[in-house]
Structures
1.
Amino acid sequence: MADWLAAIQAVCAPSVMLYALIGVCVGMLIGTLPGLTSTMAIAILTPLTFWLEPTQGFAMLIGVYNSALFSGGISAIVINTPGTPASIATTFDGYSLTQRGQGALALGINTIYSVLGGLLSTVVLMVAAFPLANFALRFGPAEFSILAFFGLTMMVSVSQANPVKGLLLGFIGLMLSTVGLDPINGALRYTFGNINLLDGISFIPVMIGLFGLGEMIYQIFTAERAEDGSAKTAAAKADGRVLPTLAEHILMIPSAIASAVIGVVIGAVPGAGGDIASIISWDVAKRMSKHKEDFGKGSLEGIGATCTSNNASIGGALTTALCLGVPGDSNTAVLLGSLMMYGMTPGPTLFTEQAHFVRNLMVLMIVANLLILVVGLATAKVSVKILSIRKEAIWMAVLLLCVIGSYALNKSYFDVIVMFAAGCLGFVFRRMEFPLGPLILGLLLGDICETNMRRAMSLSMGDYGIFVQSPLSIVMLAAIVLVLFWPLVGGKVKGAFKKKPDPV
């Protein structure tokens, strides 16, 4: 108990609260604007937090992460365009409520139930993380290498229904992770005589280039010439009461609790995320409801379920990422990169060597959600004005932050060059509809996978049997095979079991 009280005291420091509030506001801005993602916001802000204390820096990043997922529902409700992928299912009922003149109520439900999902998932994180990390401490080099590869394949397998492209970029990320000094014998690899590559390709500039600069170039090339009037009339649609009545809460609570459980479980699965969780939660809520006919037409149960599951997925994703060091999506991959920037090693050792910081992070999750509740409800009717910000202003601000962020970390012009190169590649990959997540995961997990694999081989004197000696290794290897081949055969399996239509 004394450890948790110390964590609460550290997080309640005025400077930490200020950075958390800044993160919440920035995340709200980014999440509301369609096309801008929470991953991009975290990637751009990460190097700017380098000079802060870890708790202060992560106060901002956790605030951005939680707030961006919540605020993606604002544009989904008002203009039927999800601000983030996790808010896709919010459009099912949110926009219908706006069309019925209940836009403000929908925004209030989005705020309250997103916070509910975030708080419930944080409780799960606080209860499950330390026991899971203690169990993972039993892993040896063989298990860690398989686990790292498992995380990579899980992400690649759900690469926007195109596993071949995902595997290709994942392989490129793995190749990039081999640049620099050999982790075992210190030999030079692929440096081409450039001393800037001795430490390998820096993760942060690549991340900023892919998700920041590349996204902005893509938006510039694909921007619509003519503006529609949806943003201009957004404020008028968000009129009326914001807070649900007690009867409405009683109606929404059962499906919201079920959605929170679904969000946590799906969020903990590497490769899944809030978008999958919210769609499944909406379907489950419809099956549970006594008013199934209202779903898709402005159901309060529907919007409450999707908003809850969005933010509930965060706690599940962080549980897997922090305990096992396996990022489940792009957001947690960037956050793990941020931990490494602060000199911390994600995984079970984090809970022994930096236990105080882990507790601080968990308390920060609660603080971020409480700030979202206050800010979200206070600005529910005016937050839609964010949608009227000119795209050009956003582009210039993001481009400037990309350059500053890539240079500031190491004060290296070479990192800026890497960022621009990654940005150009990110634009090309976006145009060709290649998912960017696998490349980042390959770069992040490649070194972990290679180092532990070679250590395992050294311990076994070159015997590959070390990778199938433990039951845990066998289970993870079987899961890897299933994940890699399921996208290829899953459709055929589903088709085989699909019920044939009755003859006429």
Note: The longest helix spans residues 103-136.
2.
Amino acid sequence: MSKYSLVVPAYNEEKTLPLFYDAVVPLMESVGEEFEMIFVNDGSRDGTKEILRGLAEKDARVKVCNFSRNFGQQAAFLCGFSEATGDAVIAMDADLQDPPEVALEMIKKWKEGYDIVHGKRRKRKGETLFKRATASLFYRFMRKITSLDMPADVGDFKLYDRKVVDAVLSLGEHDRLLRAQAAWVGFKQTTVEFDRPERVAGETHYTLKKMIRLAESGVFPNSDYPLTLPLKAGLCLTGLSLVCFVVFIVLACSGVAFGGLTAWLFPALGLATGIVLTCHGLSNIYLSMIYSEVQNRPKYIVADKFNL
């Protein structure tokens, strides 16, 4: 018999938590196996802490971690992972935009042998066109500039096998995007599609600032693409400047007037800038290698062991 751990970050969710509890418990009980719910109170300023205390007092399956301040959703998930004791861990939001019934489909996929089951959103109700467009662009941008095979239109609603959770916790960097790290660790993965409903209560706490910060945590730890931009720009500018010099020399030899010495200033400046950018880009390559070493990620992850 398996045990399941539900990891649920909560930030100012006093209105949604009772609804979440009432919706999730009957569904998980229908599985007929042991489960626990680990709520991580991410420095809430409303009545979230008191509500969670009340749920924990009446149900021993409810576990609560209270942060001293708001550390962010990714930190809350990691805290829940470190406390989880289940054979499979399901990460989900408290606002019921991650439908609990989808978790049952994830469990079925896990029992079929998949180690990571992503919740893939077909529709996103209650979200602005701007948010949907930027989210779609972000996933496609990440796939292009990194070596990560990140499924498009997935968030943090996932099921992780125990060994995957251990692998994610072993990674050393401070700034994390779990959906990117889930792709990096590998293992056997699949998706379950669903239509994301609107929040059952309250308002979203995901501001534009938090979205940008999350994007930074995804791009910079997982890609050296920004570091290569000066090298690419430098090579292009150097090449264009050299072509310009060749054209000017041909024009000068042909006796064509084109502005005198002043005209030579622009390709000269372009060539000098291009050389500087190229040297800067080469330095960034070494910086990228150093950064990769500082991350201190494991060089490999063992998925299974037999007779050891």
Note: The longest helix spans residues 261-295.
3.
Amino acid sequence: MNPLSFKNHNVKRFSKRPARAQSAPKGPLKVILFNKPFDVLPQFTDEAGRATLKDYISLTDVYAAGRLDRDSEGLLVLTNDGKLQAALTQPGKRTGKIYFVQVEGEPDEAAVKALREGVTLKDGPTLPAGAEIVPEPEWLWARNPPIRERKTIPTAWLKITLYEGKNRQVRRMTAHVGLPTLRLIRYSMGNYTLGDLQPGQWKEIPHV
């Protein structure tokens, strides 16, 4: 094989493939709001046999817009609209996501101020966020299993609004200011909210 042939051969073999374009959804665009219970994975399959979305949602060909950790609860938006997924999850979109967070300890103004201004985690600084001390939500449901509270240590609730989505960000932020998260509930993503959905319930809403 001459040098030119060898060069062309390797270009064909090792050249980077172009990014695969996202295929258009089959059928109408769908938007599903789901109140994810504690201990449920935000996906439809799991080789270990753990609880997944398939145990609750009968529709197919919809996918979660972003993640909600197994040990977190609340709103999960599922859709077959790639543009909507991007709008809800891509960092550049700065879509607000509201969380109600039960923490161990008593937050003071210094801790809340730090959360608002942003803290520096191992993977870099967080963006400024909304943060305020709030009463326990009136709509709150009982978690199964209940959280483990220590009788000698008080707990409090925070309402935190994020505009980004680092891995386990809320938990790491509250831990950074000395307030370990006991319970984490996502209430809204952009214009989508839990409304009156109870844990394990879902509904399809009009796509706009």
Note: The first strand starts at residue 31 and ends at 36.
